[in-house]
Amino acid sequence: MSKAPYPNHFIRAMTSNDLKNGKHDYIYTRFPPEPNGYLHLGHAKSICLNFGLAEHLGGKCNLRFDDTNPEKESLEYMEAIRDSVAWLGFEWEKLCYASDYYDHLYGFALELIDKGLAYVDNLNAEQMREYRGTLTEVGKDSPNRDRAPAENRDLFERMRAGEFGEGAYTLRAKIDMGSPNISMRDPIIYRIRFAHHYRAGDKWCIYPMYDFTHCISDALEGITHSLCTLEFQDNRALYDWFLANITLEENLIGEKGKLMPRQIEFGRSNLEYTVASKRKLIQLVTQGHVNGWDDPRLTTLVGLRRRGYTPASIRNFCAEIGVTKKDSTIDMAVLENAIRQDLEASATRVFGVLKPLKLVITNYAEGESETFTVKNHPKDETMGTREIPFGREIYIDQDDFMLEPPADFFRLGPGREVRLRYGYAITCNEVIQDQHGNVVELHCTYDPLTAKGKTSDGRKIKGIIHWVSAAHAVDAQVRVYDRLYNEPNPGAAEDFISLINPESLQTFDNAKLEPSVLDASTDDRFQFERVGYFCFDSVDHCENKVVMNRTVSLRDTWAKRTV
Ligand code: ATP
Ligand code: MG
């Protein structure tokens, strides 16, 4: 699939301007996930923005793990995030970890203490809240605010040495308890946590807070533009305050006297009918409501990948939704159209029957067979052709037959004629039913003069159905996914678990596929003609068992359902 042109947006305009007017010689961005869960489509927006912008402007972008909450983070999450960014097709300049800067951060904290710009406090969490004030009420100074720098230093060093319990002390920036911006009311910059860190191990029992860590990490890495989501708007003043009050002689790339990074906020995007918050995703996964982080019904990047989404389709989706100063909710159809467009152009066409109904062609000689040569793609000759075997017994889909078809049903019924796609016209003469009245087999005759779309007498045959030769069919399990939720905004509900769509996964255990699928490689994608787009399941598909996932239907069936 061709790559979409890089979209125009306000951050692109701003950064291009900074280059044009010489404020910066180059653009350096970063994507800074916290390794406390798997990435989802919302993160893809930020990835495409940060990496895409750098790519577009010939700059650089780091992948940095913002790992300052040891209790919630893990190596598993870190590795999964790293792999998803690489899968999307982006290359980082450097792979970084905020935890690698703990020594630097500690040094800068001491600098603030020595300058009288940070103090050790022993207010507990509840008192801290009380002293902080509200949007309409200014805060109150802590009684410890004027502690002398030497004493603060001593206490902070002892915090680090593990002399105090969790919650006994915090280190706070000394800014302004009367500020209208609550972020500036002496925020905590260090807290005591006796927690094992997945990278730093047990070296630390004090951990820096996000706001303090983030801006300094950006500055150390020589980041020029720090792009983050809107909820950090109020924290920008704090971002700038920390950088203005520390002394960074030289950053890690050895540059002196460089401009400090600039924070720019953009809106989050969330997809309808999904949940994206990591807390909710963790609940879905750990309580077993879905089958792991890569369940194809989730819009995690590993889930989308397993479902058959391509990196190009996700990048194009992100280009389509754009970047603005407002949070947005995106229609599921935008995502589905992105993958349809990609697969329409690139997927190999094959026949697959999900609900097989045996059909015997009684006037076709037993033991005989033939093959039809068909194109792998109707428009793309370069994708070549394949041979589809045909014989006396075939499978058609149960949905393509009706005992008492209404007038607008053009497929098979008793006494009716349809065309087998790429093959002959057949007429249904006999319907075999079991004792419950279920149709179990059809007996038909074929007209040998109707191969290749012709009829000998010029009669029109309206219905065309797909089929698979019974003697050559490959048995498969096919999984068809629907939205995980019937509600457009499940995340807003108290009990989002109870809103799960009970029909979000349908499994077809007796599917019959045309044999050419066995020649395919495991990451090939297919269009089952008339049915949808499919891929092999990356976890359960193996040599002895063909397992396929439906990526997306051929058309948007929800548009009809929801009006
Ligand atoms: P949580 O899901 O726990 O709220 P988070 O989404 O903020 O966490 P991070 O790991 O901090 O997760 O995200 C990394 C980056 O991705 C951040 O810069 C964040 O702003 C951005 N991001 C996360 N979700 C979205 C979203 N829905 N739309 C756009 N950007 C997002
Ligand atoms: Mg976050």
Q: What does this 3D model show about the protein?
A:
With 563 residues, this protein is an alpha/beta fold. It has three domains: 10-266, HUPs (Rossmann fold, 3-Layer(aba) Sandwich), CATH 3.40.50; 278-346 and 475-561, Ribosomal Protein L25, Chain P (Beta Barrel), CATH 2.40.240; 350-472, Beta Barrel (Ribosomal Protein L25, Chain P). Helix content is 25%, strand content 24%. It is built from 13 helices and 27 strands. It has helices at residues 10-20, 41-56, 75-87, 102-114, 125-132, 149-160, 210-221, 236-245, 278-286, 301-307, 311-321, 332-346, 558-562; strands at residues 28-31, 60-65, 95-97, 118-121, 170-173, 188-192, 206-208, 225-229, 262-266, 269-271, 328-330, 348-350, 352-353, 356-361, 369-375, 385-391, 393-397, 417-420, 425-433, 439-447, 464-465, 468-469, 474-481, 505-513, 525-528, 532-536, 546-553. It has a seven-stranded mixed β-sheet with strand order 12-25-26-27-23-24-13, with helices on one face. A seven-stranded mixed β-sheet has the order 21-18-19-20-14-17-22, with no helix packed on it. Strands 4-5-6-7 form a four-stranded antiparallel β-sheet. A hairpin with a 3-residue loop joins strand 25 and strand 26. Helix 2 (41-56) crosses helix 11. It is elongated. The model has no long low-confidence stretch (mean pLDDT 95). The structure holds adenosine-5'-triphosphate and magnesium ion.
